[in-house]
Description:
The chain is mainly α. 55% of the residues lie in helices and 0% in strands. The longest helix is centred in the last third of the chain and has 29 residues, at 71-99. Mean pLDDT is 84; it is low at 104-117.
Amino acid sequence: MIGVAGALSGHLEHYSYRDLDDHLGRMHRYAALMADELQRAGRYKGLAAVFLNPLWRFFRGMVIKGGFLDGWRGLAFHFVEARYVQEKYLRLWLAGLCEGQHSSTRRRHPSLPTKRRTRSGAN
Length: 123
């Protein structure tokens, strides 16, 4: 493309998503991909991140960045964004549970004795 850049005579509208289902589907896919990438990098998050990070994302978008100025569209968009963050960190937290990355779920070393209960309940 060689030539002189010109000006458009009208407005150019760009729609990132066809509809809500398209937006939710993409965010679901992105959450899974990002969680996998963070897991491969060895970055795990605790349960607090599942609750706090989505709240922060919603607050930052609606209040700090002025999403409230977009009305119901801004509200819907930032709800979807917060849901994306929650799904991403939920996947990451669950992956950490499965891999024993959290202190409460680490298995005991196999050489350590385990307590066994008898039927009478005595050790």
